[in-house]
Amino acid sequence: MTAAAPATPSSPHVMNTYGRLPIAMSHGQGCRVWDVNGREYLDALGGIAVNTLGHNHPKLVAALQDQVTKLIHTSNYYHVPLQEELASLLVERSGMTNVFFCSTGLEANECALKLARKFGHDKGIERPEIVVYEKAFHGRSIATLSATANPKVQAGFGPLVEGFIRVPINNVEQLKAASANNPNVVAVFFEAIQGEGGINEMHMDYLRDVRALCDERDWLLMIDEVQCGMGRTGKWFAHQWAGIKPDVMPLAKGLGSGVPVGAVVVGPKAANIFAPGNHGSTFGGNPLAMRAGVTTIHTMEEENLLANAAAVGEHLQAALKKGLASELASGAVKEIRGHGLMLGIDLIKPCGVLTQRAADAGLLISVTADTVVRLVPSLILTPAEADQIAAILCPLISALLKEKTP
Ligand SMILES: *Cc1c(COP(=O)(O)O)cnc(C)c1O
Hints:
By secondary structure, this protein is α/β, with parallel strands linked by helices.
């Protein structure tokens, strides 16, 4: 949320950590939500890339209702069969080998960072260092905000966690230079498509080059798929477009379709780093969360949502390019980019005001990195809904670009 959005504390008792729009949602259906005053919105935000199956999906609702009557939570003192089921589904779809469950994205990334450090210590590296990237976002715990590049996320929370080396995206020479003669490097950590940083894609060649470098130097390749994973780009995981596999892959957001579920999927190189006692999470892998994950994956397959994300994403991208053709030609829209249903419209000026204006026009969107309109709707979006997003959004963007204000 940028400074332009009005900060309206909703209650004297809820801590004031968000610049919220003055809207309160009541209920949803598919890609639509209604506020408490009965106003309808088309949802192109999907709870920030979370509501994979849209709102009130009958299969998810039925599964959760059934699970609530059986078991919500036990603990990881016992076997949880639904964990084994979801782990198998993730292992089959990623081609990796093992899964640790947690509840959020930052928690999944925190686990990845611990894996990297222990991987180093196990090799006799006392002060392991992890390569991270400009414009990266990995969460808001002390370690993950240290790995994040955004100074606004870090401001006020020093001292930051040490042991990170930062490099620009898509430049393998700079990665080699930054790590040259440094025997402490143990891992490379990045988002396959940066989300909060403004929808910036890692190039396919870069992904393959970094995979090769990690193999050559015995580093862990850790790809944060918290936002870009779970089918959003049209493959299960965004890195799969490059035909590579990471060693460590944190997931969250879309995995539970709105129920908090996080996971860290690992390959053979990272499968045996932790032993009992090294890591854990009270809520991680609880039956309710696991049922949400299992049902999300099955429903995605039954309803062909990977193919839908790819096709409707292309349709939406084409509609936006058509609706903003003159702005693209003039350079006022710098670029429309992204993959599948993870799209960014990069403008030449800050556009935080668009979140309120779009809501006033019945459309939910977000703005990241100050100048980028982000669209990460549910994967059930239809071509007609994509057309409607473009029809509402494009005129708002052209009007903003014509205004004299900075
Ligand atoms: C949202 C996000 C996170 C943090 O997830 P939380 O569930 O908010 O902790 C981490 N990495 C990426 C790439 C994200 O988009």
